[in-house]
Amino acid sequence: MLLDENNYKEKIDAFTQQDWRPLLELIPKIESASKFGEWSGGKTDEKGISQFPYCIAAQVVSQFLQIVYRLPTIINFDWGAWKKGRKMASDEGFDFDTIDLPTKCKLITAIVRNDRFCEGALVCAFESGLMLKILKSMEKQITGAR
Question: How many domains does the chain have?
Answer without folding.
Answer: 1
